Amino acid sequence: MASVTLEDVTKRFADTTALSDVSLDVRDGEFFTLVGPSGCGKTTTLRTIAGFEDPSEGVVAFDGKDVSETPVERRDVGIVFQNYALFPHMTVAENVAYGLRFRDPPGGVSTEERVTDLLSLVDLEGFDDRDPDELSGGQQQRVALARALAPGPSLLLLDEPMSALDARLRENLRRQVKRIQRDLGITTIYVTHDQEEALSISDRLAVMSDGAVEQVGTPREVYRQPSTRFVAEFIGDNNVFSGTVTDREDGVLSVDVNGETVRLLGDDHATGETVAFCVRPERLTRDATQNRIGLDVETVEFLGETTRVHGTWNAFEMVVRLDDVPDGDSLELGFAPEDATLLR
Ligand code: ATP
């Protein structure tokens, strides 16, 4: 198994800086996700870890050892890309066995036994003789995963492996990938632009923006305590406000938001300072006694288990979640001070 460390990694391509000072610690056995919008540097980070790119500055280390001089094929990583990249003229079994071209199967088993074990691991027993074009997209990706795992790598790198699949298939496949990762205990680094996927599959995630890491944490931490405005807006639905601190007493800030005062928890902000804060949609409730907000309702989306309401309050656009469908064009809501998070 392996831990992976990036220390102040910068990567420049001609006049583009794809990564600036990226530092990460991926722990042994962890499912770690890089998530962020298109162009933020996720793939470049993954390719640098794999050894397809050299950092312009900084260090990549596996288990504390600098791997800068180690070529891709000796880094002991399995890689699955977005496009399945199975060989069309090879059967499923031959594709999986291709993963063993540089290395004997681990555990002293034969290639045939290894292929059978892996096909069973990815729930494709008996598919050995099929051609790739006789498989669904999800099945092809599972073959690609089996091929990557064939030599028993210490590290698994997955670059948007599900992005070509439809929503239901993605959900199934991500549960399978998670199960396989947990069974094998293999350190896994996963790239996706889909924040919901990142929350659902990861032990921890790094939210990236513009070549830099904004926040690293567990899904809960990143969702509940986003540290920056970018993270607050990128991960899940959110309501972001800004205002001016008018008073500070016993850890409670009074903040003027376009003429209305709300109270938040916070110590390290001075009177007169401009602050940004967020409140998750599900934290705005009709029975809250504090921080009352009169929402002008604009659209109501009934989604089955919940209803999402968009509207405005005090010139801020807002989104809230209710468990029933409101009538009328205004809603009285509120939130507790502890349900607001101050942002950088
Ligand atoms: P996506 O989700 O769209 O794949 P990403 O987050 O994976 O995006 P990267 O592919 O890592 O982003 O790209 C980061 C930045 O580096 C982008 O501005 C991209 O145009 C640039 N870049 C990546 N590879 C190269 C290259 N080989 N030459 C020049 N610029 C590159």
Write up this protein.
By secondary structure, the chain is α+β, with helices and mostly antiparallel strands. 22% of the residues lie in helices and 35% in strands. It is built from eight helices and 19 strands. The strands form four sheets. The protein has a six-stranded mixed β-sheet with strand order 6-7-8-3-9-10, with helices on both faces. A hairpin with a 2-residue loop joins strand 9 and strand 10. Helix 2 (92-98) runs parallel beside helix 4 (137-149) and helix 3 packs across helix 4. The two termini are 36 Å apart. The model has no long low-confidence stretch (mean pLDDT 93). Bound molecules: adenosine-5'-triphosphate. Adenosine-5'-triphosphate binds at residues 13, 16, 18, 36, 38-44, 193. Adenosine-5'-triphosphate (ATP) is lined by residues 13, 16, 18, 36, 38-44, 193.
Query: How many angstroms does the end-to-end distance come to?
Result: 36 Å
- Category from helices, strands and their pairing: alpha+beta
Strand content: 35-45%
Per DSSP E runs of 2 or more residues, the count of β-strands stands at: 19
Strands of the largest sheet, in order across it?
6-7-8-3-9-10
Name the overall outline: elongated
What compounds are bound to the protein? Answer: adenosine-5'-triphosphate
Largest sheet: 6 strands, mixed
Rg from Cα: 24 Å
Give start-end ranges of low-pLDDT stretches: none
Concise description?
This protein has 344 residues and is α+β, with helices and mostly antiparallel strands.
